Amino acid sequence: MKTKQSPAPDMSRVQVEILERSDTTLIVRWVEPGRCHYGEQRWRRRSANSSGTCVLSRRAIHRGDAVFRPAERPAPSNAKAMISVDVFGQSADE
């Protein structure tokens, strides 16, 4: 089944706020003015399946790095966004 690709978000306009955090889950408020708003979006920890950029630190993420990604279904418009686990300092498994 072919899905429609959403255009990449303009990261200069995206507002991201971490509302809650555990070792495996984030609750994120994601606001893209004029495009979408997720008031309490659940993100889960996983390995990055592709390279990208952390939406908080703007640092590079490499395939296999530990990241948080949106976990909701159907896939939200920010489904490819990633937050590096490294932005929170040491994780529980280090």
Please, could you describe this protein's structure?
The protein is mostly beta strands and 94 residues long. It has one domain (15-88). The chain is built from no helices and seven strands. It has strands at 15-21, 25-32, 36-47, 52-53, 60-61, 66-70, 83-84. Strands 1-2-3-6-7 form a five-stranded antiparallel sheet, with no helix packed on it. Strands 4-5 form a two-stranded antiparallel ribbon. A hairpin with a 6-residue loop joins strand 4 and strand 5 (60-61). The chain is globular, with a radius of gyration of 13 Å. The N and C termini lie far apart (39 Å). The relative contact order is 0.22. This is DUF3331 domain-containing protein. InterPro entries: DUF3331. It comes from Trinickia violacea.
Q: What is the domain tally? A: 1
Number of strands: 7
List segments where confidence is low: pLDDT < 50 over at least 5 consecutive residues: none
Structural class by secondary-structure content:
mainly beta
Rg of Cα set? 13 Å
Task: Give the SSE string.
Answer: EEEEEEE
Instruction: Report helical residue fraction.
Output: under 10%
Shape: globular
How many distinct helices?
Answer: 0
Beta-strand residue percentage = 35-45%
Mean pLDDT, nearest integer? 87
- Straight-line distance between termini: 39 Å
Q: Report on the biggest sheet.
A: 5 strands, antiparallel
Report strand order across the widest sheet: 1-2-3-6-7
